[in-house]
Amino acid sequence: MSKKANIPLDDDDDDAVLAQRISDTAKQQGIPSLTPAPVSNSPAGPRRPIKIEVTDELFDALTIAAAQQRVTKRHLILTALRDAGFPISDVDLREDGRRLRGSRRE
């Protein structure tokens, strides 16, 4: 069996201090950390998530269109927003590679 390390937790430690202690201990022991990876920023600036709810009909239509064009739904939505006049850079429209298959690979 593996030997588990006990990390004493003080009640007066704030969340940032505890998160740093967990991260440091994980690095020392060579195990994954529970602290989240830093948010990646695009060259256009920092990103923030947005969540919307759509009808099943729209969801299915986006899924089909994305599959036919071999892009993500995110790409479809950002393209539509750019076409509507919102400031979306070409860098943010770049595909992440998960959909590139077969002859589309470079």
What does this structure look like?
By secondary structure, the chain is mainly α. Helices cover 42% and strands 0% of the residues. The protein has 4 helices and no strands. The protein has helices at residues 15-29, 56-69, 73-83, 90-93. The radius of gyration is 21 Å and the shape is elongated. The mean pLDDT is 77.
Write the layout of secondary structure elements.
Layout: H1 15-29, H2 56-69, H3 73-83, H4 90-93
Give me a quick take on this structure.
The chain has helices at 15-29, 56-69, 73-83, 90-93. It is an all-alpha fold and 106 residues long. The mean pLDDT is 77.
Task: Supply database-style keywords.
single chain, 106 residues, mainly alpha, 4 helices, elongated
- Approximate strand percentage: under 5%
Number of strands: 0
Shape: elongated
Instruction: List the quaternary state of the chains.
Output: single chain
How much is the radius of gyration in Å? 21 Å
In DSSP terms, counting alpha (H) and pi (I) runs of 4 or more, how many helices? 4
Query: Pairing-aware structural class of the strands and helices?
Result: mainly alpha
Helix content: 40-55%
What series of H and E elements makes up the topology?
HHHH
Low-confidence stretches: none
